[in-house]
Amino acid sequence: MELRALIREEVLAQEAYPVEATSCRIKLDANENPLALPSELREGFAALLASVPLNRYPEAGSLALTARFAESFGVDKDQVLIGNGSDELIQILCTALARPGAEVMIPVPTFAMYRITSLNAGFRVAAVPLDEAFDLDLEAMRERIALHPPALIFLAWPNNPTGNCFSAERIEAILAASPGIVVVDEAYFHFSGKTFLPLLERYSNLVILRTLSKVGLAALRIGFLIGPAPLIHELNKVRLPYNLNALSQAAAGFYLDQEAIFLKQAAEVLKGRDELAAALERLPGIRLWPTDANFIYFSCDFDTDHVYRQLLRYGILIKNFGGSPATGGRMRVTVGTQEENLEFIKVLKNILVK
Ligand SMILES: *Cc1c(COP(=O)(O)O)cnc(C)c1O
Asked: How many angstroms separate the alpha carbon of residue 326 from the centre of ligand 1?
């Protein structure tokens, strides 16, 4: 059997999403909340999980949970779809919209899963570089929309890895110009505090993504898609019946019950971010960009591969995007606990001044 002859070309042509397997002491590569579930919540959480009937299938479509989150978003329950992380919701969107010859538009750089999932679904991908301030290149995007209207446009807001929020006016201009769906991915909403939710009524092609991954529950894979009810109706046909397991459904309810505590952690992370940014800024050869998220994107006038490897020798993992020292290699660091941030700065400083 010639296996390669059986696999679709767009799958053969891809690399799997690189999830770092390296073990490390200080993990600052994946934009997770560095703070564990507070000890005073653990007993209640354990009791809740222990009460979940594991012999039964989970509630199909997470109906009770959907109603609760819809209320918290201030929308109708038929405007919300809950997924196994927003990754699954991106996949559901792509599966439903990938008609033959259809195109997805993304700015670059941005979240890697948009491209990977689009290609796997059979989309062509039009990648439009961001401008110098990492904002949307409105002219280039509008030109592309006029030439070949994309079925889907993905905009991470704030953007990953650059950390900034694109200007809201430009996103609105894209919403107005695009006949296709425009996804505003608010994965870092808990840090930016900015949302397009109030614009759902104005734009029938607007879809918003949210997740609990960056605010403390990455392990449980819980994401939300909020959009027009007729679209959700179609997407539900693509969704697997039991996509959110029962433990994650219970945990998502627990999150809503205890949201204030998670938001307090997010506020603590934000405080740490500003301290981390101030310390990074003082290091030689480092330039950073303003961020609305729980991570910092920076350029480094040194060989980033070398910096990355040296950090790892000390057990510190960050994200390396490479690039030449001449133009400034690019790296991204997630805000950790106060101790982790301090140690990261100390070790990085040693590497740079050597
Ligand atoms: C981290 C991240 C997500 C989260 O995906 P989940 O599957 O919900 O964990 C989504 N979008 C962007 C832009 C991200 O950076």
From this structure: 31
DSSP letters of 133-158?
TS---HHHHHHHHHHS--SEEEEESS
Which one of 159, 160, 189 would you pick to mutate in the ligand 1 pocket, going by the greatest count of ligand atoms within 8 A of its CB? 160
In a domain, 274, yes or no: yes
Domain stops at, among 207, 225, 258: 258
Give yes or no for residue 240 having a pLDDT over 90. yes
Mean pLDDT of 126-150: 97
| Residues 143 and 217 both lie in one domain | yes
**C-beta 211 within 6 A of ligand 1:** yes
Tokens of 191: 């840090």
Evaluate whether residue 3 is within a structural domain. no
**Tokens (6 digits) for 101:** 């010859």
Are 108 and 249 contained in the same domain? yes
What is the distance in A from the centroid of ligand 1 to the CA of 191?
Answer: 14
Containing structural domain, residue 323: 18-37+260-353
Q: What is the pTM of this model?
A: 0.96
**What's the mean pLDDT in 140-149?**
98
Structure-block tokens of residue 175: 């919403």
Q: Select from 258, 282, 313 the last residue of a domain.
A: 258
Which pLDDT band holds residue 275 (cuts at 50, 70, 90)?
very high
Question: What CATH number is attached to the domain comprising 223?
Answer: 3.40.640.10
Number of Cβ within a 10 Å radius of residue 198: 8
Residue nearest to atom 2 of ligand 1 (CA): 187
What backbone torsions phi and psi does residue 322 show, to the nearest 5 degrees?
70, -155
pLDDT tens profile 182-225:
999 999 999 999 999 999 999 999 999 999 999 999 999 999 99
Distance of alpha carbon 277 from alpha carbon 280, whole angstroms: 5
Are 184 and 300 members of one domain?
no
Total of domains in the chain = 2
